[in-house]
Amino acid sequence: MRVIVNESQCQGHTMCNMVAPEIFKLRDEDGHAYVESVDVPEHREADALNGRAACPELAIEIVK
Amino acid sequence: MSDRVVIDFDLHSLEYNNRGVETETELRSQCPVAWSEHHGGHWFVTGHDAVGAGLRGKGNCSTAKKYDDEGNVTGGVQIPTRPGYRVIPQEVDPPLWDDYRKLVSRPFAPRAVEELKPVIESYADEVLDHVIGRGEADFVMDVSSPITALITLHILGLPLEDWRFYAEPIHRMFTAAEGEDIQTGLAIIQNHLLTTIAERRENPREGLVDDLIASQVKDEPVPDEDIKDMLFNILVGGFDTTAGLLSGALLWLDSHRDVHQRLIEDDGYLRTATEEFLRYISPAVALGKTAAQDFELEGQEIKEGDRLWFMYRAANHDPAEFDDPEQVDLERSPNRHLAFSNGIHRCLGSNLARSIFQIVLRKVLIRMPDFSVDEASSIRYRRGAVNAGYAHMPIRFTPGEPLSDERIVEKI
Question: At what angle are helices B224-254 and B183-202 packed, to 10 degrees?
């Protein structure tokens, strides 16, 4: 599974980080989300899906 | 003639004010995007999908205020357009919006809000210390309003003892009766901000005011008028919304006491509960935009120049997105609510609002564990089309002791 944060869609709601902080990190200056690695380990796949479901901007893409 | 869905909905009517959520349910079930002939004619958007899509679509919407050929002001975030000042960055479009938003962003970023938590804690303790011995208080005017105001003034770098000077006229925007003047009070605030800005150029201190005075946009210093409009945006953006969230939550918790202990002890539960209160209460009920281009929304043809009223609370109660939307489920997850709006104008204060809410709520639950709300004497906003909240919410509690004898502010 790979996870991509679409930077131009992200508006810094921080909800992905709220539900899946291990995957979705927040920039210091504006709280916009990023991932340290696009590859999602199997034990974190549910977290990645929860993060995507939490985003009001539909800015998170999951590629299985 | 287009075949748009037309519904007789007056967003400023007393009828809607008194039956907000019920009216929104009726409107949304008729059509998630519809047209009203009131107030010069405007779309109103009640569906969750539609609000999101409308605001997410790049280039769909404008919030800037403009003058038409007859010299009338159009646009902005109110319907009908409010004359006079613009709030910045809310009533600015890209590309200028990008510069202004950056100027005010830093103190509201998650990291900065995290670092501000000790200040939030101390102001919350201070305000509660003022009332804890009385056994009764107006939760709005004695607790949630002053706490929010003090924290905001701290960030801006404005004198804390002036909190009432700012809070009362802003509060009156939502609580004043029909025909009561609310503009004079706001103009007085605006003038005072301009005086303060001029004074701070001579005698800089610490705060967002001073940061803005020292800033540049496109290699030019920011004009005083624009600094005033940025300060004003922050004042009106945060005061009554956060207070409305706290009041609404306290009222619900008054009749659901079995969750109090878990809210105190369980951080994860408090986090999901915060999002659910945001969804259910939606203190920012709705705001307006103007179509910057033609676009389609749920089968309706939006034309450039059309005004649109995006109804966040209605979207947050949409059964197409939320199972059992009228049920408060403090563990609801996912909870893709639009209480902070969507798109580029996502509420700048969202992280701060959450932190203030969580810190204040926990302190009230801990320091006033047997609080009771006098719902019969609680008075909702009289102008509830834009913000949902309470003008007054009397509460009773067993008197307690102040945590400190020291006072940051003399009189609350």
Answer: 120
**Structure tokens, A25:** 């990190």
Which residues touch B412 (CB under 8 Å, ≥6 apart)?
A: B126, B127, B130, B131, B142, B146
Q: Does A32 touch chain B (CB under 8 A)?
A: no
Residue in A closest to B335 by C-alpha: A54
**Contact (CB, 8 A) for B132 and B398:** no
> Which of A7, A9, A11 to probe by mutation at the B interface, max B CB count within 10 Å?
A11
pLDDT digits (tens, 9 = 90+) for A6-35: 999 999 999 999 999 999 999 998 999 999
Test A29 with B106 for CB contact under 8 angstroms: yes
Q: Measured between CB atoms, which of A14, A29, A57 is closest to B105? A: A29
SS3 B176: coil
Q: Looking at this predicted complex, what is its ipTM?
A: 0.96
- Using the 8-state DSSP alphabet, how is residue B292 labeled? S
Q: Which two tokens stand for residue B160?
A: 């804390």
Angle in degrees, 0-180, between the axes of helices B96-105 and B224-254, rounded to the nearest 10: 60
pTM above 0.80, yes or no: yes
Which residues 6+ apart lie within 8 Å of B323 measured at CB?
none
